[in-house]
Amino acid sequence: MTDQPLLNEIKALIKSSGPMPVWRYMELCLMHPRYGYYVSRDPLGREGDFTTAPEVSQMFGELLGLWTASVWKQMGSPQFLRLIELGPGRGTMMADALRALRVLPPLYQALYIHMVEVNPVLRERQSATLANVRNIAWHDSIDEVPEGPSIILANEYFDVLPIHQMVRLENGWHERVIEIDPNGKLQFGAAPEPTPRFDVLLPPLVRAAPIGAVFEWRPDGEIMKLATRVRDQDGAALIIDYGHLRSDAGDTFQAIARHTFADPLKAPGQADVTAHVDFQALARAAEDVGARAHGPVTQGDFLKRIGIDTRAAALMQKAAPDVATDISVALRRLTDTGRGGMGSMFKVLGISEPRLASLAGLSDLEQAGEAS
């Protein structure tokens, strides 16, 4: 199959080294230096494979800008602030956030923008979108961002970090792997031996899972980097992604191509492969290193608490009827809990240094519009 070089390479690796863990397969699909999905294309928008919240409406980025302002004030209004975005897409969210922040000159003048992006195609798009922004730099990893007070935004970033999948068999939990079936196609399998004492590490809900159940977990390295940074250098991180509020069993490994679910084993490198984010695990890992976790809450609740209804009403009041209709549709898409809505599927988690006792939108005690 000459048109699928990554598939051929993965098969060759399996033939030479044996079945491949799901995490390694996912890593190759997304980040292979030549054929990886996230190093070779712009996947966003109608012409791409999926649409993120910032592409749905300017309101999303604007409200995150106002949220940033509220946190900056809680931090004591430091004279310089690093605003870091992980996986910033086309730069749309940052552009919208900065437009909102221009109304607060002391903060706007204090900003240093850092974009963490490995995709050269998207870097070019971001550079064009943010061409008039001063004090902006690009990095391959947050490790490259200089120290200092920071607010970190991560929208749909954690879902593409590789997952380990474990499957429960009669004699314990086995690492789930990718192997080649008798017809030469990729299929799921399980490592022959169970992982010793894996059940000791499992959340209580998962320990009682039935035979055949799948449990997914990500290494804590990335969340611990963010938590350690804000703990030691002052600031907060905001994580928005689709996933579950508490750790549980379930197979969420999936592929999306042209806005439709696809077989994740069929065309490696040519579709976005992701898995749901375990927000309870993220919060626990952040607290384990001494940071404070806020939430998680649903995206719909978060956006309503920080004023999206008020912002939508203000935009619709000034807009032509057809544009007002588009704004109303976008509002429902971002906040609704039903089919096609992102409001309940997506969750929001805040991480901060310990002295920040609350963050706007992430406490049940806060009222809508607080961030503004």
TrEMBL record:
Annotated membrane-spanning segments are none
Q: Which UniProt keywords apply?
A: Methyltransferase, Transferase
The UniProt entry, under InterPro entries, shows:
NDUFAF7, NDUFAF7_sf, SAM-dependent_MTases_sf
Q: Which Pfam families match?
A: Methyltransf_28
**PANTHER family this protein is in?**
PROTEIN ARGININE METHYLTRANSFERASE NDUFAF7, MITOCHONDRIAL
Protein name per UniProt = NADH dehydrogenase [ubiquinone] 1 alpha subcomplex assembly factor 7
Which species is the source of this protein? Bradyrhizobium yuanmingense
